[in-house]
Design a protein that fits this description.
The structure holds two protein chains of two kinds. Chain A contains three helices and no strands. Chain A is an all-alpha fold. The chains are: A mainly alpha, B mainly alpha.
Chain lengths: 92, 236
């Protein structure tokens, strides 16, 4: 395999693993947060407004880890710096 | 495939480029400013109001209530900054129903600029409320060892704000573009409806997080005062 093929294969496999594993953790975390918030809202309906607001902020925090993975995946797939470097080096 | 509206260039002269991000940002600013100017030109304080005045009153009072509930008092002082953030991001994602439009928040430059304005606004509000020395001293709490961690926290949450907004808006566009290739009939409509919902939630979260950060910078002194009042009630 020449180095271009290696970079392409490694990038695609890394992107697949990143999306798979990188969404697994936040999904579990968000599910736990939502289920805990729902049960506490069922116990204390008066505090629903505060719980919902805190839940939204917390969900945004948890979700951002998945978003980081997504952004890095998109960079690997569509704007890969190693790939671009190699293309430039080949053109020179 | 386009990653961001930065890559669409309308006009170029030398190194000066007018890309879609700048053009749509200016368009949004113009629409928001002229719209609210037109509405607020004829305000009435009586019982008879125009429907547009009602709309603006609902938006402004709802934002004011949210800011007040998060512990920033008086909310009017912070409404200008936080409300502008919310209105801009919400309008940027609401306008995606217009064909040919790309949300400027889907570009990392816009998201980073908004996050940087929060990064600057937090110490400004903190210093306005507590004074320079008290604000700087809050970095040394609880101990001196925490100083680098406090500074790193400021930087990393700015990065997180920018990447979160950019990632959410870009992923909406991306998924819509991919589904257009796979299932071009009806299904993309649902995805754009979902994109509208995500956009509103992101606008809410961005402004709420900005409020929380400002409140954390402002609140330190008030907590200390309350504690003093509790321990020595005769001083209050």
């Amino acid at each position: 395999m020449d180095s271009m093929t290696i970079i392409a294969v490694v990038s695609i496999v890394a992107a697949a693993f990143m999306m798979g594993i990188g969404t697994l953790g936040p999904a579990i975390g968000e599910a736990r947060a939502v289920s805990t918030a729902l049960s506490s809202m069922a116990q204390q309906p008066d505090a629903a407004a505060t719980i919902t607001r805190t839940l939204f902020v917390g969900l945004a925090m948890i979700e951002s880890t998945a978003i980081y993975c997504f952004v890095v995946t998109m960079i690997l797939l569509f704007a890969n710096p190693f790939w671009n470097h190699l293309i430039q080096a080949a053109g020179r | 495939m386009r990653l961001s509206p930065d890559e669409v260039i309308f006009w170029q002269y030398g190194f000066l480029k007018l890309n879609a991000t700048i053009a749509f940002t200016w368009g949004l600013m113009l629409a928001l400013a002229t719209g609210s100017r037109l509405v607020s030109r004829r305000l009435s304080s009586g019982m008879v109001r125009s429907r547009w005045q009602n709309l603006l009153e609902i938006i402004v009072s709802a934002m004011e209530r949210q800011i007040g509930e998060l512990g920033l008092q008086p909310p009017r002082q912070y409404l200008g900054f936080v409300g502008t953030l919310f209105l801009f991001i919400a309008a940027a994602s609401l306008c995606t129903i217009i064909p040919g439009y790309m949300p400027p928040t889907g570009s990392l430059s816009t998201a980073a600029a908004l996050a940087c304005s929060v990064f600057v606004a937090v110490p400004v509000f903190g210093i306005m409320d507590q004074g320079l020395t008290d604000y700087l001293a809050s970095y040394l709490k609880p101990t001196l060892i925490m100083l680098p961690f406090n500074i790193m926290g400021e930087l990393s949450r700015t990065l997180a704000l920018a990447v979160r907004l950019f990632g959410n808006m870009m992923s909406g566009e991306m998924i819509a573009a991919m589904l257009l290739a796979v299932a071009p009939f009806i299904f993309p409509v649902f995805m754009s409806a979902l994109g509208l919902l995500t956009g509103m939630v992101q606008a809410y979260i961005f402004s709420i997080l900005a409020t929380v950060y400002i409140a954390a910078a402002v609140r330190a002194r008030k907590a200390v005062q309350k504690q003093i009042r509790k321990e020595q009630p005769w001083t209050a």
